Amino acid sequence: MSAPAPGVAGRLSFLDRYLAVWIIVAMAAGLGLGRLVPGLGDALAAVTVTGVSLPIALGLLVMMYPVLAKVRYDRLHTVTRDRRLLLPSLVLNWLVGPAVMFVLAWAFLPDLDEYRTGLIIVGLARCIAMVIIWNDLAGGDREAAAVLVALNSVFQVLAFSLLGWFYLSALPGWLGWEQAGLSVSVWEIARSVLIFLGIPLLAGFLTRRLGERARGRAWYERELVPRIGPFALWGLLFTIVVLFALQGDAITSHPLDVVRIAVPLLVYFAVLWAGSMALGKAVGLDYPRATTLAFTAAGNNFELAIAVAIATFGASSGQALAGVVGPLIEVPVLIGLVYVALWARRFYAAPAPVPQGEPSRA
Length: 362
Prior knowledge:
The protein has 17 helices and 2 strands. The protein has helices at 8-11, 14-17, 19-36, 40-44, 54-70, 76-80, 83-108, 113-124, 131-137, 142-175, 186-215, 217-228, 230-253, 255-282, 287-298, 302-313, 318-344; strands at residues 48-49, 52-53. A hairpin with a 2-residue loop joins β1 and β2. It is globular, with a radius of gyration of 20 Å. It starts with 7 loop residues before the first helix and ends in an 18-residue tail after the last helix.
């Protein structure tokens, strides 16, 4: 009798299996370093790329490249034709997401205008980076994630400033509430997108194209992908350490403020993710694409939000602190939702069989 197939945990590497633990350790290490080492935050922030610390920028690029190198770019056409995925994604990201954050920010922080403004900015910055990692860990559709992230990037360039004016100035003014301004150019947003998405996307595409041309698809999937794959998680952990080291003093110096900001963020991530998963199932998406829909809707581009808040209101502002608390809450919550998604897979129909000659995505 053959031995039973190992469970999901048994098929994971040591790093993957205890990722939640490593993330908590990385967050604690970053916070400790930022608090205990004088001048570390200033040193890390000395050189920036589009307003983001250079070490964080490098970590993000390393984190995204391996996942984008796994994408089957010859399958992208099957995603672009799927209106059940594309239309809900646009609605969730650019209508529902910012509106939900606006409502939560005013509901939970009516007396703290700086933090409220910072949260609204976080809600406007749709995710184009870490969502790639969460989606891959949860077994989402890599090709769908690549398309949705690219689509979000285009809309981010076109719509971020307009939505900022609407939610920070126009809508509060119509309601008789306090208004705020936002100063960010389309070029600044486009530059951020080109660096944090364009570079790893081009590198991933060229790696697959040249690798398959030189050695064939079987070698690429079975030999090269497993070798470069772990760098995504190492890049993630490095980014988390640097991010929290950079902002450790600000976070630990305002514990009660962090709690006030964290509560609406927790509600936001839970509502957007769960609602998106339910919507995906309702419109007939399979588990991989419903998962991709959920993580791309719930995640936010904290790099852009922090950069905009600092550029507009200053590094020591409440708006910047709210942007910093974003990843403090998002990282552990979304890694937790990865495990929830894997548990929820049982409620979705089995994925379509893999065509003969193509490697399994399991």
